[in-house]
Amino acid sequence: MSEADPTAARRTPSQARSRERLERIQSVACELISKTGSDQVKMSEVAALAGISIGSLYQYFPDKSALIRSLFERYATQCRGYIAETLAEVADVPSLLTAFEGLVDVYLDVVMAEPVMHDIWSGTQADKHLADLQLAESRVQGALLADAMRKVHPGVAAEVIDRNAFFIWEMGEAAVRLAISVGPEEGRALVEIYKRMSLKEIAEPK
Question: How far is the C-alpha of 157 from the C-alpha of 161, rounded, in Å?
Answer without folding.
Answer: 7
